[in-house]
Design goal:
The chain is 42% helix and 19% strand. By secondary structure, it is of the alpha+beta class. It folds into two domains: 2-98; 116-340, Bira Bifunctional Protein, Domain 2 (BirA Bifunctional Protein, domain 2, 2-Layer Sandwich). A seven-stranded mixed β-sheet has the order 1-5-6-10-9-8-7, with helices on both faces. It has a three-stranded antiparallel β-sheet with strand order 2-4-3. The mean pLDDT is 91. The structure holds 3,4-dihydroxyphenylalanine.
């Protein structure tokens, strides 16, 4: 009877000990306290060790039962101890020990931005849009007939030399394809598919097989313009292009038109502008659409007339921002690009 009571008391003691130990470990927040806790409960002279000592006079079966319960508790407490110790250590290494000035400004997050070519393209399109032009796009792989023949540049015509063209291999029965060397073929496509009055600009990428230098790239962007209606004359062209130049380069910009040759216009001109510095910079080619081109798309040159123009987008940006090397646009140099954010 006495012994039975002892067994029961011992079990209760173990249960209380477990409760006490698990509660007290929760409140511990220093490495010193966790060490004391360990000594107190599972140390060599701790409460569990003492408990083993206390029941050594009991019967063997009872000793076994209590022993295994006490061992189980010891294992539980050891596990708790290790977990707590690790948690305290991890926490400590997370705490900033060096001085940190929270009032310092943060590191800027670097964001992307629109490429200067595209910025210029958007600016030019917006200007023409304000002047009443619609915006179209066209294919970069073009047929030779649109790129040259229909623009009054027949095969073997020496003028083809101006456009150092990259030819595309024939694909089955699709022959005579080129990477468009200019955006002018879109004049034909637009006129074939739309009735006058036509007032459009067509921005896009062009390709030429040529050596690169400060003013030449093998790929670049152009914007083509086309106006077709009854009674369109050279003065309409000059006024439109002059107004456009002032919108992009400022109100003080002066424009100069001089004779130039392009097979798809007659008369043809190059337009230069005088902006800021005391020098004239060639901005674009332009002219009155050649009667042969109008006939090629089934328009009667006795009824309709119009003008066309084409300018290099990188060239416009170079003039506007004083960039002296076209290759900067595609070198992907962050120092260059970040100036246009
Ligand atoms: N396509 C010409 C070029 O690549 C530029 C050009 C000149 C376009 C005169 C025109 C034009 O529409 O009238 O050099």
């Amino acid at each position: 009877m006495v012994i039975l009571l002892a067994l029961k008391n011992n079990k209760t003691y173990l249960e209380n000990l477990q409760l006490e130990a698990t509660n007290s470990i929760k409140t511990i927040s220093s490495e010193e306290d966790i060490e004391n806790w360990r000594i107190d409960y599972i140390g060599r002279k701790g409460k569990i060790s003492n408990f083993f000592q206390s029941f050594k006079d009991l019967k063997p079966e009872e000793k076994n039962e209590l022993g295994s319960l006490a061992n189980k508790l010891k294992n539980t407490l050891e596990k708790l101890y290790k977990e707590k110790q690790k948690a305290l250590k991890d926490n400590k290494s997370n705490i900033q020990t060096e001085f940190f000035d929270f009032t310092l400004p943060g590191t800027p997050i670097s964001t992307g931005s629109i490429h200067p070519t595209n910025q210029m393209m958007q600016e030019i399109c917006t200007a023409f849009n304000k002047l009443g032009f619609n915006i179209f796009e066209g294919p970069e792989i073009e047929s030779e007939s649109y790129a040259f023949d229909k623009l009054n540049i027949p095969t073997n015509h020496p003028a083809r030399d101006i456009w150092d063209t990259i030819y595309v291999n024939d694909v089955e029965n699709i022959k005579s394809l080129v990477l468009r060397p200019h955006t002018s073929p879109m004049q034909i496509r637009i006129m074939e598919n739309n009735e006058p009055p036509i007032r459009v600009v067509i921005p896009g990428k062009c390709y030429r097989y040529e050596a690169t230098d400060n003013t030449h790239e093998w790929h670049f962007h152009q914007i083509e313009g086309l106006v077709i209606d009854k009674n369109i004359n050279f003065l309409n062209m000059k006024a439109t292009l002059f107004e456009f130049a002032r919108m992009i380069f400022g109100d003080d910009t002066k424009a100069r038109f001089r004779c130039d040759f392009f097979p798809f216009v007659e008369p043809g001109a190059e337009m230069s502008i005088n902006f800021k510095q005391n020098e004239w910079l060639e901005l674009m080619g332009a002219g009155m659409v050649h009667p042969k081109v109008l006939m090629n798309v089934g328009l009667d040159p006795e009824i309709y007339s119009g003008f066309a123009f084409g300018l290099g987008i990188e060239r416009a940006a170079m003039i506007k921002y004083g960039i002296d090397n076209i290759r900067d646009f595609y070198a992907n140099d962050y120092q260059f690009l970040k100036q246009f954010k």
